[in-house]
TrEMBL record:
CDD domains: ALDH_AldA-Rv0768. Residues 13-476 form the Aldehyde dehydrogenase domain. This is Acyl-CoA reductase. The active site is at E251. It comes from the Bacteria. One of its GO terms (molecular function) is oxidoreductase activity, acting on the aldehyde or oxo group of donors, NAD or NADP as acceptor. Belongs to the aldehyde dehydrogenase family. Keywords: Oxidoreductase. It holds the Pfam family Aldedh. It comes from Microbispora rosea.
Length: 478
């Protein structure tokens, strides 16, 4: 069992303000993984004060971009040494299958960090942009200030570093509020930042629940909020930011559509959707959970998807052969099951899956991967984010109809197009109002931009666009 007695506040391991403790239990068998302090508002006050001093008076914002990049690169090297350990820890905490956490921690996060470092090197931190007579106009990019980063439990290190890395490269100081379900990996991450040699006050990491999150985002010492989570919580945070005129970026929910055009290679489609739709237990904001199929191939698509979903291995997430693990909590398990019940009540045809717990897994929060056919886009199972392994197949008449259905959503985070002609697939992708599209399952690089249209959020992450979320622009004419 892992025990953290202290919090990481401003670069120091300090006793928490209260005796409240978070117990992190495995969603696989409910065993105790470890304990950590439950950060309280008083801990937030200390962390924000340290971040404020470090930003207003300390060296970090005044270092050159190259010096800050060197510290971030040192952090990345130290992180790589422990990446396998972190993958196993996150799997134990939240039930993400080991294949997914290994990919995230050993491959994805280093690539993301490298892309941010490249973006920082390419960014013109101060440049001449014009002149009138003998007077020149300079455009400066300066750090936005103290950042409150609030993250979920489903991919905790990815959600943390997609905010911490660009904020630090820009010269900001950061208070990271981690979820109770993944408190242990948050404080393990603090150990790496501590070893990287950041100046005092630059980073604090506090695991806590919703009440402490609300206190942090409303804190007068915070200049910018960076949030990943539900659309409902994002709306609340946006209202706080609006009242206080704080900068805000929000990465929120999704209900991504995958359009299978008539000439698509169905074998490749199903192989791609295995990860795009069900990756990370489908507790994934960009999961392709709306599958749009042409009427001429509808039953063929349904049968192929059902065969794939019945073939995936559900079980202990620490087993490398497991593809889908448990839901993170009992209430999340019940939420997903309630949508399965709703789908049946709405008149959809349940092709595979259902409410029964997979054999031998009754001690955990497991849900059988479930596929619904004969789904109308007005059904709630086709419109609301379920955040679990429940997929719906919606028929379309022609390409224009497919685009209309894909865009008929309050969300606009991810999506895909499958086509024999890649260029034609790109043309269709351009018509979808969503921020993160794949054609034939191609994986975008971290030099692009990630974020959503409509209720899927505000702002972007990754690359130059993500780095720009943490800067203010100043014009100097002289």
């Amino acid at each position: 069992m892992i025990t953290y007695p202290n919090l990481y506040v401003g670069g120091q391991w300090v006793a928490p303000a209260t005796a409240d403790v978070l117990e992190v239990r495995s969603p696989h068998d409910r065993s105790l993984v470890g304990t950590a302090p439950h950060a309280a508002p008083a801990d937030v006050d200390r962390a924000v004060a340290a971040a404020r001093r470090a930003f207003d008076e300390g060296p970090w914002p005044r270092m050159s971009p190259q010096e800050r990049s060197a510290v971030v690169e040192r952090f990345s090297k130290l992180y790589a040494v422990r990446a396998e350990e972190f993958a196993a820890l996150v799997t134990a905490e939240n039930g993400s299958p080991l294949w997914f956490t290994r990919w995230t921690h050993l491959q994805s996060l280093p690539e993301m960090t490298e892309a941010y470092v490249r973006a920082a090197a390419a960014l013109g931190w101060e440049e001449e942009v014009g002149a009138v007579g003998d007077a020149t106009t300079r455009l400066r990019r300066e750090p936005v200030g103290v950042v409150a980063a609030v993250i979920p439990w489903n991919a905790p290190h990815q959600s943390a570093l997609v905010k911490l890395v660009p904020a630090l490269l820009a010269g900001c100081t950061v208070v990271l509020k981690a979820s109770p379900e993944t408190a242990l990996d948050a404080l393990a991450l603090a150990e790496v930042f501590d070893a990287a040699g950041l100046p005092e006050g630059v980073v604090s990491i506090l695991p806590a629940g919703r009440e402490t999150s609300e206190y942090l985002v409303a804190h007068p010492g915070v200049d910018k909020i960076a949030f990943t989570g539900s659309t409902a919580a994002g709306r609340r945070i946006a209202s706080v930011a609006g009242e206080q005129l704080k900068r805000v970026s929000l990465e929120l929910g999704g209900k991504s559509a995958s359009i299978i055009l008539e000439d698509a290679d169905l074998t490749a489609v199903v192989a791609g959707l295995r990860a795009l739709s069900l990756g990370n237990n489908a507790e994934n904001c960009v999961a392709h959970t709306r599958i749009l199929a042409p009427r001429s191939r509808y039953e063929e698509v349904v049968a192929a998807l059902a065969a794939m979903m019945e073939d995936v291995r559900v079980g202990d997430p620490s087993d490398p052969e497991t593809f889908i693990g448990p839901m993170v909590r009992a209430d999340q398990q019940q939420r997903v099951r309630s949508y399965i019940e709703l789908g049946v009540a709405e008149g959809a045809r349940m092709v595979t899956g259902g409410l029964e717990t997979p054999d031998g897994l009754e001690g955990g929060y497991y849900v059988r991967p479930t596929l619904f056919a004969d789904v109308d886009s007005d059904m709630r199972i086709a419109r609301e984010e379920i955040f679990g392994p429940v997929l719906v197949v919606i028929p379309f008449d022609d390409e224009d109809d497919a685009v209309r259905i894909a865009n008929d959503s309050e969300y606009g985070l991810g999506g895909g197009v499958w086509a024999a002609d890649r260029e034609h697939g790109i043309e269709v992708a351009r018509r979808i109002r969503t921020g993160w599209m794949t054609v034939n399952g191609a994986a975008p690089t971290y030099d692009g931009a990630f974020g959503g249209y409509k209720s899927s959020g505000i702002g972007r992450e990754f690359g130059v666009a993500g780095l720009a979320q943490y800067v203010e622009y100043k014009t100097i004419a002289a």
